[in-house]
Amino acid sequence: MLAAAADPVGGASALVGVADMDMKQRSLDGLVAFLTCFFPHLTDWEAVRYLVLAEADPLVAARIVVDDRRTKCFRPGSAATNGALRLALKCATVAAKHPCPSELAGVWLSMCSSLDTLEKAVSLLNSPGDILHTLAKQTPYVPCPAPVGIGSSLIRPWELAARRSKHAATVTHQYSWSLRRVLLHTIHGFYLQALARMPGGDLRSRYHRSMLKAGHCYGPFDSVTNIIVNTIWYEATFPPLSQLDELDILGTLNLMRIEARSLYGLVSFLCTHDKGLNADQAIRILLDMDLDLAATKQCSGVQEEQEEAFRAAAIAAWHPRPDAQAGFLSSCRKPEVLLLLSDNGGQQQLSSQCVQQLAMLLSSAFNSTGISAQQKQPVAVCERAFNLSMSEGRKQRRDHKRISRKVKAALSRYEMQNSGHACYRLHVICGVNVSVSGRDWKRKTRFDDDYYHHIHANFLVTQDVGSVGSVPVLFFAELSNDDDGDKDSQLLCCPVDFPTPGAESYF
């Protein structure tokens, strides 16, 4: 205070310096927020690295990310890209602490949607004169906020960014943490497709165990076929020792575990088959080939080399029977399997009869290798651990029944609102997040857990189409976490697209 009073000019300069640093930091926060929102799998430090390569140009940085990841489904001007661009811009203005974030985002989008206005703005920025005064006279005539129906008109900013990106630096690093997340997102999409192809009754009563335990996506076929084949083979070769409960919901953490283990197996297969590859190069190959080992040169070779690579994959993926799976995959009768799957209708749901035929074919092929298929006996556990496991299992079953009841009620309301009659049948619930919109410290559940207001769920449904095979549809629902079912009618339930290989979560 005394220094500022003695030297007011110096104090003002110090305040200006602080304000200037604050503006720079807020600008950086906004740029990072733009990229991490546009690419949900990107980390903050990776966003900074791409921004350095793009000289702090956010759209140029976005194009560098797309090129670096070989994102095949990126379409400038598409509905998905435009929606992500709007959301990313709003997040950036909020992160930058702009006083009017929604208005700024609306003006920017509206200017970009008008080719004449955008060209005027670019010419003003490249010409001398009072730019701010001229732009201020232009913006009152721009509608705000941006119209919801803006479509291909937002392609022009990407075209301009493509010109500027020609002078940007090239990517200097091979592997990033976010690439692993992109691959996991792709693998999750493959598991959803595999779940959709399995017959609902068999999946809920038998094959949920073998898929979550040994249904990995590596093998001699495409990823979805590998999941189905590995699941059916393990169930037929190593059946459970006791009767399984029928489940119409697969735990999210269980799916994430088998998906992560599949990624470890894929990388280990490539690195074992080709000793010159490292993990970074293997991940790049998987990204380029959409995780299809059958499309890589490493999947061709003599049976001994194949078996060694599949054994390494099974060990890295924590397969319960790595030697057995390696022997099976290296000697699998591919033509017969593919013929049986193609006869059932391509992408349509498999029939129970087809699954039984596959089980007989795969188990007979495995038994001919001479490897013992005797099932292991469970390991004895102490009484305390057993009681704790049983208590947790009972709680999980109660939660599953409650969520299943809510999903079926939401699906029934969706049917009545859109078709007026029941035409959908629940296939399986394949993803649940019970911790949405919270946490609410004022409320506790009866089990003394933290309370959240909403539940997000993904589930597959089939249509009643008579004798014609149906293609399952993926749905998303936002449900109330309260036990009062009437509140669910005010929330969301709608069909969504399956995840696209190599894409962000919104493409």
Automatic annotation (TrEMBL):
<feature type="domain" description="PIR2-like helical">
    <location>
        <begin position="186"/>
        <end position="295"/>
    </location>
</feature>
<dbReference type="Pfam" id="PF20235">
    <property type="entry name" value="PIR2-like_helical"/>
</dbReference>
<protein>
    <recommendedName>
        <fullName>CUE domain-containing protein</fullName>
    </recommendedName>
</protein>
<dbReference type="InterPro" id="IPR022059">
    <property type="entry name" value="DUF3615"/>
</dbReference>
<dbReference type="InterPro" id="IPR046527">
    <property type="entry name" value="PIR2-like_helical"/>
</dbReference>
<feature type="domain" description="DUF3615">
    <location>
        <begin position="407"/>
        <end position="500"/>
    </location>
</feature>
<dbReference type="Pfam" id="PF12274">
    <property type="entry name" value="DUF3615"/>
</dbReference>
<feature type="domain" description="PIR2-like helical">
    <location>
        <begin position="21"/>
        <end position="64"/>
    </location>
</feature>
